[in-house]
Design goal:
globular; disordered N terminus; mainly alpha; single chain
């Protein structure tokens, strides 16, 4: 039953109140996200060296098989509940049981998919690995309704704190398991167990924390009250599925082409690890933005001027932070890879360089979905996602063609050439579709995009100037043989200072004022 002491729903906020709440919550979540990413990077640096790339390659094969059913089964109905202005007690209970049931089905689908893809990839280990990871979908579903209720109440900072605790415990235990496996010389065979432990511990801690924070208990099973959310949630789930397939088609194709051998699994592991490394600044910024953006916009959907003001703030905040992040990672990729993985991971440098330009583009695409969902335009979101998937498939086909036909001209293996070509295709297709996609999203909700795109271009110009300067400084440090860590620290500090000087007015208006905005 519902707890009487829950905070009042924030459904009647005006634009100023909504922006103030969004800014405050974004600031909290951003700080906690920074801490999460620091912990993640430290954990990755240790696990990369303990496990090498093989177990990460197996995880890269399993991850889409785990996430696809999970997204279809659980995400759509929960997003529909966040978007809905009024949610009754019966609907909350129905949402919980429906999500739990769908999470169980997703777990079953993951285990079954392991048999199919073990045959397709010719990797028998995928059978037991998929069944081992399968129950993670059910564990996440157990706390998803409580997370939804906290999002509706705009208690996003609490969610971020719970995830920080879960991430810390998960990384710690994964490293301990990795050391034990290394001591027993079982890394080659069971290294993925450390990653399995990390996944389960994080989700279990998150679920417990969400239950304790939300202080809500479901009533008896009632599924009828959730019917009103299924249509909206179904379109959103399908759109999310299509987006996810597009974002992971590169990894699926790479695993199918080279994943049957240990050497191929190593390169798949490098590619997926570099992809997740590229996505860390994206998640750092877009996680707090999207968690605040959807509930904020949903409550302003009947006031177009307020909707436009909120949307503009979210887009400029994201672009101001992610554009320089992409440029900086592009320039400093050799130092980043060397620090995280050592000499064994040097083939991954080209992959990270090719993926780095996608950082800001991915961030813009991520938050654009919330723009359409906030207005209830999930059908249009599905249409756009299908077009994006079609273009991505063509780009990866071109990448495969180039890699297989010109691999002999480079002094590297065909597997490495293929991974770099796929990475370049990934960034290229996002570059081609991100601007039209943003324009379509804005026109769908009757917002003007020209002025916003001009500001993006101005930020990009200043970030490129910063990148050229950092590239020159880095080359000088390499020439005089500066230590790796010193090169990285000086490069980051120089980039941050130069970008701040070049774009101070934008940073002040788009980031600082946004996070401390008050009525």
């Amino acid at each position: 039953m519902d707890n009487a002491k829950q905070p009042a729903p924030r459904e009647a906020l005006n634009a100023g109140q909504a922006m103030a709440t969004a800014g405050n919550e974004t600031r909290k979540v951003l700080i906690l996200q920074v801490l999460r990413q620091v912990i993640t990077v430290i954990g990755a640096m240790i696990l990369f060296r303990l496990l090498d790339a093989g177990p990460f390659g197996l995880l890269g094969m399993v991850f889409p098989l785990m996430m696809l059913p999970r997204m279809v089964a659980t995400l759509g109905v929960s997003v529909a509940a966040v978007q809905k202005k009024h949610l009754s007690a019966n609907q909350k209970t129905a949402l919980f049981w429906a999500t739990l049931l769908l999470g169980g089905l997703a777990s079953l689908a993951t285990g079954i998919a392991g048999h199919l893809f073990a045959w397709l990839y010719d990797v028998p280990e995928l059978v037991w690995i998929c069944w081992a990871f399968a129950a993670t979908s059910f564990v996440e579903a157990t706390g998803l309704t409580h997370q939804t209720l906290l999002q509706r109440e705009m208690r996003i900072g609490r969610i971020a704190m719970i995830k920080l605790i879960g991430q810390t415990l998960a990384v710690t235990l994964a490293v301990i398991v990795g050391y034990e496996l290394q001591e027993q010389q079982q890394i080659a065979k069971y290294g993925i167990v450390a990653l399995l432990v990390m996944e389960y511990v994080e989700l279990l801690v998150n679920t417990i924390g969400l239950w304790l924070t939300a202080k809500w208990k479901p009533g008896p099973m009632r599924l009828g009250a959730v019917k009103g959310l299924l249509s909206f949630g179904g379109f959103y789930s399908t759109s999310s599925l299509v987006f996810y397939v597009g974002q992971n088609l590169d990894k699926i194709l790479l695993a199918a082409m080279i994943g049957s051998t240990r050497s191929g699994q190593r390169f798949v592991g490098m590619y997926t690890s570099m992809y997740h490394l590229m996505m860390k600044p994206v998640y750092l910024v877009t996680d707090p933005v999207t968690s605040v953006m959807l509930p904020s916009l949903s409550r302003s959907s009947d006031r177009l001027r307020d909707y436009a003001s909120l949307s503009r703030g979210f887009y400029l905040f994201t672009a101001t932070l992610l554009i320089p992040a992409g440029v900086g990672l592009f320039v400093m990729a050799p130092e980043v890879v060397q620090l995280l993985g050592g000499d064994k991971w040097q083939p991954a440098v080209g992959m990270l360089i090719a993926l780095a330009p996608a950082i800001c583009l991915h961030g813009m695409i991520n938050i654009s979905g919330s723009l359409l969902v906030g207005m209830g335009q999930v059908r249009r979101l599905l249409g756009v996602s299908l077009v994006l998937l079609f273009l991505q498939a063509q780009a990866y086909g071109c990448g495969y063609f180039l890699a297989t036909h010109y691999a002999g001209q480079f002094d590297v293996s065909q597997e490495q050439t293929l991974a770099v070509a796929i990475a370049m295709s990934y960034s290229a297709v996002l570059l081609l579709v991100s601007v039209p996609y943003i324009v379509i999203c804005f026109r769908s909700v009757q917002l003007r995009s020209r002025a916003l795109l001009f500001q993006f271009a101005r930020l990009l110009g200043r970030a490129l100037l910063m990148g050229v300067a950092v590239w020159f400084i880095r080359n000088q440090m390499v020439q005089y043989d500066w230590h790796l860590i010193l090169r990285l620290l000086v490069g980051i500090a120089a980039g941050a200072c130069l970008y701040t000087l070049l774009a101070w007015n934008d940073i002040k208006a788009n980031v600082l004022q946004f996070m401390r905005h008050h009525e």
